[in-house]
From TrEMBL, chain A:
Protein name per its UniProtKB record: Penicillin-binding protein activator LpoB
Key words of the record: Signal
NAD is among the record's keywords: no
Species this chain originates from: Pseudomonas fluorescens
GO molecular function term, any single one: enzyme regulator activity
One GO cellular component term: periplasmic side of cell outer membrane
Domain of life: Bacteria
GO BP term (any one): peptidoglycan biosynthetic process
NCBIfam families associated with the record: lp
TrEMBL record, chain B:
InterPro entries found in the cross-reference section: DUF1425 (IPR010824), YcfL-like_sf (IPR038483)
Listed name of the protein: DUF1425 domain-containing protein
This protein's UniProt keywords: Signal
PROSITE patterns the record matches: PROKAR_LIPOPROTEIN
Length: 195, 123
């Protein structure tokens, strides 16, 4: 009886000693990395390029002093003039998010949000489903004082030894009423691969 | 005499092992954080100003070698309480030609930033 109890106790100790205490479940080949790290996997447009452009443009615009009194800005999609597929909406979303965090600007519904905005206003005002005191009235949307638009272009050169990619991102803030460009900036990025 | 020599030797060894004194608060050195290795590049003068409500910094960097150097860097922006404000900056690459001196400009991520640290690293 004592021998059986001892064996059971030893097995219990061994099993508890081998229990997995790690908060990780799954393959050891998969790791989470630093989202802010310099990414040089290939020389196509990458996460570091997107982050550097958004950071540089946002700070230049926020610190320029042009955005007095938190003006309303309408953001247009960045024109992709490169030969690559680039989700330029992510560049504008990052710029918009970072500018919003600085508290220097407010943003009007852009071309993709506008339909949802109009649909919601129509639903509230025309469906008769909502309590009148809670309905958002039409004709009160705030028009943009400025529009923000930009473009990204690239020059790609190849030789037997090198591939050189030069990106140029331009962004400008235009006064809607006067049509004048009130602020402009550029960010240049060169990436070279030696074969 | 033998004890004196041994004592002197011990003092020299101890002095050699002593850690350098920490940089004075507010000094240029106190704003630089070396992440592992940082060789061949010297950090010089630092200019800090507040322009249109945002903290701006310019840091002088000099390649003190006769070959081109690459370094990685990012600014960490701190509030008045010494804690980080906003999201972390992206790591960036800076290439310096042989013996080149340059100024690294930066604008704070938020108007609340009151101080900064420059994190640097060479490959």
């Amino acid at each position: 009886m004592f021998a059986r109890f001892s064996i059971l106790a030893v097995v219990a100790v061994l099993v508890s000693g081998c229990a997995n205490t790690s908060p990780v479940l799954g393959s050891k080949n998969i790791n989470y990395g630093d989202t802010k790290a310099v990414e040089t996997v290939t020389n196509e447009f990458g996460s570091t390029d997107l982050q550097m452009i958004a950071e540089s443009m946002t700070r230049s615009l926020a610190q320029s002093g042009i955005l007095h009194g938190r003006p309303v800005v309408q953001v247009y999609d960045v024109k992709n003039k490169t030969s690559e597929y680039i989700d330029t909406r992510e560049i504008t979303t990052s710029i918009k998010t970072q500018l919003m965090k600085t508290g220097t600007a407010r943003f009007a519904s852009d071309n993709t949000d506008m339909q949802s905005q109009v649909d919601q206003l129509k639903l509230q005002n025309q469906s008769g489903l909502y309590k009148k005191t809670t309905v958002s009235k039409t004709g009160n949307m705030v028009a943009a004082k400025y529009r923000l638009e930009g473009s990204i272009s690239s020059i790609v050169k190849r030789s037997s030894d090198y591939k050189d990619v030069f990106y140029k991102f331009s962004l400008q803030l235009i006064d809607v009423e006067s049509g004048l460009a009130e602020w402009m900036d550029e960010k240049e990025i060169r990436k070279t691969t030696e074969r | 005499m033998r004890h004196f020599i041994l004592g002197a030797l011990a003092l020299v060894l101890l002095a050699g092992c002593a850690t350098p004194p920490p940089p004075e608060p507010g000094s240029a050195a106190s704003k630089i954080v070396v992440m592992g290795k940082f060789k061949g590049i010297a950090v010089g003068a630092i200019r800090v100003a507040r322009e249109n409500g945002f903290l701006t910094a310019k840091v002088q960097l000099s390649n003190i070698t006769s070959s081109n150097q690459t370094m990685y860097y990012r600014f960490a922006w701190l509030g008045a309480d010494g804690f980080p404000v906003g999201d972390e900056d992206t790591w960036k690459v800076l290439n310096l030609y042989a013996n080149q001196a340059t100024f690294l400009p930066a604008i704070a991520n938020l108007p609340q930033a009151a101080d900064f640290r420059l994190e640097v690293k060479t490959p």
